[in-house]
């Protein structure tokens, strides 16, 4: 529904990934061009995120210039940012309506920096007003400042044969290594499993695939 509101033809759809075992992954329609992961931000995760950022800054990583990445500056808009990351990095596969608000946003923001894209989204009413309908984060009221746990969306995409994690809270995309169109779903789920292994007591993980309809 949200994709249609943004002017995308329904030849792609978001479907739930019911489990990470091969037989459950086999139920997901192929091809899959992106995976969104919803996960809890916990102290364990924040510690890992800081260490990961320092490690990549020290060692460096290869990120293709064609990866579309944007920062997140709007609270609780991670569902929308995840969706934009999923669509933007597969825009050659999407069929947009001529008056699509998302198509216009992507065309306008292609030459911008990740920070400029975030600022542009803040002013872009057509996407911003519908953003919470995609996020289904279950937050009826804003969490308090002391709230330790929050739920957050990231996108996993295949750009040029590499699997990238796109998280607007991070300073840059994370390159998780090589992938292919055929193995992308399985490769993305392996990344999701690492998130779960870091927080074994947590149950609030949910994966959604952008699949061919």
Q: Would you kindly provide a written description of the structure presented here, covering whatever features stand out?
A:
- This protein has 213 residues and is an alpha+beta fold.
- The chain has a single domain (1-212), classed as Peptidase C12, ubiquitin carboxyl-terminal hydrolase (Ubiquitin C-terminal Hydrolase UCH-l3, 3-Layer(aba) Sandwich).
- The protein is built from 9 helices and 6 strands.
- It has a 6-stranded antiparallel sheet with strand order 1-6-2-3-4-5, sandwiched between helices.
- Strand 3 (150-159) and strand 4 form a beta hairpin.
- The radius of gyration is 16 Å and the shape is globular.
- The record marks 167 as: Important for enzyme activity.
What's the overall average pLDDT, rounded? 90
Structural class: alpha+beta
Uncertain ranges = 134-149
How helix-rich are the residues, as a percent range? 25-40%
Distance between the termini: 13 Å
What is the count of structural domains?
1
Gross geometry: globular
Record field, number of beta strands = 6
CATH superfamily: Peptidase C12, ubiquitin carboxyl-terminal hydrolase
The Rg value, from CA coordinates, equals 16 Å
Major sheet details? 6 strands, antiparallel
Record the strand order, biggest sheet.
1-6-2-3-4-5
Order of helices and strands: HEHEHHHHHHEEEHE
Q: What is the overall number of helices?
A: 9
Portion of residues in beta strands equals 15-25%
Q: Which CATH first-tier class would you pick?
A: Alpha Beta
The name of the CATH topology is Ubiquitin C-terminal Hydrolase UCH-l3
CATH architecture: 3-Layer(aba) Sandwich
Catalytic activity: Thiol-dependent hydrolysis of ester, thioester, amide, peptide and isopeptide bonds formed by the C-terminal Gly of ubiquitin (a 76-residue protein attached to proteins as an intracellular targeting signal)
EC number: 3.4.19.12
Keywords: Cytoplasm, Hydrolase, Phosphoprotein, Protease, Thiol protease, Ubl conjugation pathway
InterPro entries: Papain-like_cys_pep_sf, Peptidase_C12_UCH, Peptidase_C12_UCH_sf, UCH_AS
């Amino acid at each position: 529904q949200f994709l249609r509101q943004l002017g995308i033809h329904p030849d792609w759809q978001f479907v739930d990934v019911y489990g990470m075992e091969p037989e459950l992954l086999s139920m997901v329609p192929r091809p899959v061009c992106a995976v969104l992961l919803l996960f809890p931000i916990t102290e364990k995760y924040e510690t890992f995120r800081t260490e990961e950022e320092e490690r990549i800054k020290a060692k460096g990583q290869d990120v293709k210039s064609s990866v579309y990445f944007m920062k997140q500056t709007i609270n609780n808009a991670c569902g929308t940012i995840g969706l934009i990351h999923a669509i933007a990095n597969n825009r050659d596969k999407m069929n947009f309506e001529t008056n699509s608000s998302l198509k216009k946003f992507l065309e306008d923001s292609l030459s911008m920096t990740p920070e400029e894209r975030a600022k542009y989204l803040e002013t872009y009413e057509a996407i911003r007003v519908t953003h919470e309908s995609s996020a289904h984060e279950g937050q009826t009221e804003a969490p308090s400042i002391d709230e330790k746990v929050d739920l957050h969306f990231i996108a996993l995409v295949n750009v040029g044969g590499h699997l990238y994690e796109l998280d607007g809270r991070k300073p840059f995309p994370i390159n998780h290594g090589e992938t292919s169109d055929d193995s992308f779903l399985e490769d993305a789920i392996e990344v999701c499993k690492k998130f779960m292994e870091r927080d074994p007591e947590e149950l609030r993980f949910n994966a959604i695939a952008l699949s061919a309809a």
